[in-house]
Automatic annotation (TrEMBL):
PROSITE patterns: LRR. The lineage of its organism: Eukaryota, Metazoa, Chordata, Craniata, Vertebrata. It comes from the Eukaryota. Keywords: Cytoplasm, Leucine-rich repeat, Repeat. This is Leucine-rich repeat-containing protein 51. It comes from Panthera tigris altaica (Siberian tiger).
């Protein structure tokens, strides 16, 4: 399958869904089975998923150590990752590894423990980022949070 064909089809693929799995470390994804949905996941000949969406919500992750490496083991085209759901984990910061996925358009970080509003600035390098959720984090209490969020939405 050509890269262009992949880009046209994988947007329709169901997510690789590891939500509600009590995952503590990203490395655990390599031994964990993803949740099954109504539509089956498609895989490449090498066995990697053809999706552009990775759901890791409702786990107990507190860092993203080895994230790029593990994603490259799971996805045929990790560079095309467009949606990452990390909501409802224990993340205290926005790991710079997320800024390496330039096709990222949806990033859910709500319900974590992110405390510094300045963390959000790291994401400015993502040209396609259109949806970012941060509610339910301690940064909500920081002065300027609402203003910063509305400016980010107009980007």
């Amino acid at each position: 399958m050509s890269k262009e064909d992949y880009m046209n089809t994988s947007v329709q693929e169901p997510p690789l869904d590891y939500s509600f799995r009590s995952i503590h470390m990203i490395q655990d994804l390599t031994s964990e089975e993803p949740r099954t949905g109504l539509r089956p996941l498609r895989h490449s000949k090498s066995g990697k998923s053809l999706t552009q969406s990775l759901w890791l919500n409702n786990n107990v992750l507190n860092d993203l150590k080895d994230f790029s490496h593990v994603v490259s083991l799971l996805l045929e085209h990790p560079e095309n990752l467009a949606w990452i759901d990390l909501s409802f984990n224990d993340l205290t910061s926005i790991d710079p590894v997320l800024t390496t996925f330039f096709n990222l358009s949806v990033l859910y970080l709500h319900g974590n423990s992110i405390q510094r509003l300045g963390e959000v600035n790291k994401l400015a390098v993502l040209p396609r980022l259109r949806s970012l959720t941060l509610h339910g984090n301690p940064i909500e209490e920081e002065k300027g949070y609402r203003w910063s969020s509305s400016v980010a939405q107009r980007r």
